[in-house]
Amino acid sequence: MGTDGMDVKVPADQVAARSAPDAGTGVRVLPLILGRWGPLGRPAVARRRRARRASRASRAARVRARIGLIIAAAFLVLLVLWAIVPGVFAGTDPTAVNPLAALTGPSVHNFLGTDQYGRSIYDELVYGARPALEVGVGSTLLGGAVGSLIGIVGGYLGGWFDLLIMRLIDMLLALPGLLLALIFIAALPRTLSNEIFAIAIASVPIFARVLRGQAVQVRSRPFVDAAVVSGLRRRTIVIRHVIPNCVAPAMELATVYVGVAIVIAASLSFLGLGPSEVVPDWGTLIQSGQGYIDHDWWISVFPGVTVTLAVIALSILGDRLRGALEPVRG
């Protein structure tokens, strides 16, 4: 209706054009919606960025783990070479005394310094690798074999035998490994074989407890039930089925316990209960430098660092071994 009260007719095409939505507005709104919530929007971009960061972090972690494994394996190989052929890496007589060179700090000629008797710390470390590895590997093999056998048999048989054995194992586990080794080594002559025997006894309850749990798990698996139904004897089932499925955790534990045994052996030597050998071991070196730690720190620090690195390298190797054997166990 116009201003003078008369009706004004508007063409139909103009009415349709006015009532129709603006095509330009729709074109502008659609990219806004897609850009904010669509597959190419900000949330999707953020998710992809997080995924890329997580992927890079995972690759970096794998690379670091691989580098750490290589370094640990190289250090362990070096220790083994020190133990096998020490004369290639050091002098022929680590006990040679040179009073003129006593308490000399790290230098070009003695890059790890000398002790209070003028003996090279490096030579003593090289020659001390053999007794350290002998104790670590020997006690682990002996104690691991006995403890694994007790745990596997007790876990598979169950009943009163398992109950009796596990109560004895719990009593031994109540004592720390070092204290348990001290009890036995104090009553025995101070020889390397007796030290291996004492530390092996301290490792028996640990292996027995771990392998007993693994044997209980294996006993409940279907292939063991099938072997029982087929009429196989218990001894045959244990040898053919239970023991092979307990090898992986035993290897993992043994790898780590070698480092524990080295620490226990060094602790016994530090306390004066180590073997009375001519060549001092790492624990004796640490103890001999105790009174010079304020000024001549290298006498105790370098043997302590060597023990620490050996334990860390064995721990890394054991962790890597667990990751490699996990699919087999699962």
Summarize the structure.
The protein has 330 residues and is an all-alpha fold. It is 72% helix and 0% strand.
Bin the strand percentage.
Answer: under 5%
Structural class determined from secondary elements: mainly alpha
Order of H and E elements? HHHHHHHHHHHHH
The low-pLDDT segments are 22-27
Cα radius of gyration in angstroms: 35 Å
Question: Main beta sheet, described?
Answer: none
Mean pLDDT: 82
Which geometry do the CA atoms define?
flat
Count of DSSP strands:
0
| Intertermini distance | 87 Å
Helix content: over 70%
Number of helices: 13
Question: Could you explain the architecture of this structure?
Answer:
Helix 3 (42-84) crosses helix 5 (121-157), helix 8 (192-219) packs antiparallel against helix 11 (247-270) and helix 9 runs antiparallel to helix 10 (234-242). It contains 13 helices and no strands. It is 72% helix and 0% strand. It is flat, with a radius of gyration of 35 Å. It has helices at residues 12-19, 23-37, 42-84, 86-89, 121-157, 159-173, 177-185, 192-219, 222-229, 234-242, 247-270, 282-288, 298-329. The chain has 330 residues and is mainly α.
